[in-house]
Amino acid sequence: MQKRALKLFVILLSLACLFLASCATTSNVAEGAEPQEGQEEGAPQKKKKAPKKRVSRVRFDDAGYDQAVKDEDFDKAFGMIESLGTKANIAKMLDQSLILFRGGFYEEADKKFDQTTRALDDAFAKSIVQGAATTILNENLKEYSGTMYEFLLVDTFAALNAYKMGNVELAHNLLTRVYDKQKKYVADYGELILRDDDSSRKGSDAGPAEMEAALGMIGVTFHVPYSIPKKLSASQKDSLIYKTSPLADYLQIVIGAQNGSYVDDFTVRELKSLAPQIETDSAELPYGKGRIEVLALTGTIAQRKQHTDWLAIDLLDVGRTISSICGYENALRFKYVWPECLPQKDVVKASRVTIQGEGQNASKQAILLEDFDKAAINDVDLKARKAAWRSVWRSTSKKAVGLAGIIATIKNDPTEGFLTVVAVIAGAQGLRAIDKSEVADVRQSQALFSKAYAAGFTVDPGIYTVTVEYSNGKKEVVENVKVVSGRPVLVESICQK
Q: Which of 25, 87, 136, 293 is most buried, judging by how many CB atoms fall within 10 Å of its CB?
């Protein structure tokens, strides 16, 4: 009789616990809603000298920010970054710089580029010295040190911004700094990346021996997920490392020639090797001639997404007990994550560039100078396997230990059910927390452009009108472009989407 009463009590307690757990989950969703805050100044505008409009300082959330950048609603994106304050990571600082640049706020962008450069230099140098440190909790808890392409492009776009301010000398100095960075860091970064994949397994809270022991307790043999990124050869890894920027080379030639500086032959050869169809006439203009160089920047860079793979396990009778009581369908599956980056579709292209003036009328097809999407995709391909292995070892060790603890309680339950129910329900919450914490690091600058195109014309000195045509039917007309003898002039055009 007492046994029946005890069993009835256990069943009622189980139902009560499940009800409370369900209520708690619903409550947490409601509490997670993030309200908007008050109005705040600070979002960039379309015109450089127009007063800033007041925009809602919306509390930052990843999904909202992703959508704002995707929609190219840069006012909203800027406001969301502002709400982060000092919590904004380097990627968001670079985004602020680029949003200000896109909006024509060149003086403000100059200050933000400088701040971002110093932060990126410091963090990137630390990552080189310390190695690719892992974390036992979450990839995103590591300090963001940037990617190699961000590390080099921050000064490239800062130089273009300085040129737009009319400071050609500063622009030239910033481009020189890009080459100093290449010499200083690329070799060390390459050596770090080329290290064996096994190094990425270190840093989990339980080492291989502890993980195998925990897996043994739950009767599971470890299997590598079939979809884990394949191991790359040293030559494949080397080919994916971002070593130089064709845009930086192009600007070095054009702005260097305009600044009256000697244009290094190596830079000319390197640019031609990276973008064979690009003309490099600005490096050596014919006597009495000038040059119009047109740079067209389009879209926004391809974004990283999380790839999630679940590896199911079967614990037979014990597993069915856990599944029936805990009410968490992923309790018996290991969650593995890593970043991926897919090519974009229908990115706007610069199609033709036309000039008119001084009795001249010429038109050329715009040439793809640099594909920033490719830089992002290569960076992900380079790092995905190590990120995946870190997730595999981290997630497996944590969840195996959690499951082993539940099973040990079930097997040694003197109350014939009471402790089992309590342990399973509590353990299920712990397993859910483990899965929630297993999140891929998909941080990157999201406001970088997708593509850079260029076209150039060697012309007589005078005043010209430049028209840039885009694949989406849009046109930008730039009038009163003044060309002088012996110097190139750079015309920059942006087509958001």
A: 293
Radius of gyration of the chain (CA): 28
Q: Tens digits of per-residue pLDDT, 168-193?
A: 999 999 999 998 888 888 888 877 77
Q: What are phi and psi of 299, to 5 degrees?
A: 60, -165
Closest C-alpha to 168, from 107, 257, 97: 257
pLDDT, tens digit, for every residue of 54-92?
345 577 777 888 888 877 788 888 888 888 877 788 999
At 36, phi and psi to the nearest 5? -80, 155
Cα 230 to Cα 203, 307, 385, 387, distances in angstroms:
21, 14, 7, 12
Residue 476 near residue 287, CB atoms below 8 Å: no
CA–CA gap between residue 254 and residue 250 (Å, rounded)? 6
Distances (CA, A) of 147 to 49, 50, 261, 406: 33, 34, 30, 41
- Burial letters 122-137, b for 16+ CB under 10 A, else e: ebbeebbeeebebeee
Give the separation between CA 274 and CA 268, rounded to whole angstroms: 10
Whole-number Cα distances in Å, 3 to 107, 199, 325, 419, 423? 80, 54, 20, 15, 20
Q: How far apart are CA 261 and CA 130, in angstroms?
A: 38
What's phi and psi for 339, nearest 5 deg? -80, 150
At 213 the three-state DSSP class reads: helix
- Confirm if 41 and 54 have CB atoms less than 8 A apart: yes
Answer yes or no: are the C-beta atoms of 140 and 441 closer than 8 Å: yes
Cα distance between residue 264 and residue 371, in whole Å: 24
Dist CA 105 CA 338 (whole Å): 37
Of 88 and 201, the structure prediction assigns the larger pLDDT to 88
Give the H or E element holding residue 467.
Answer: strand 462-470
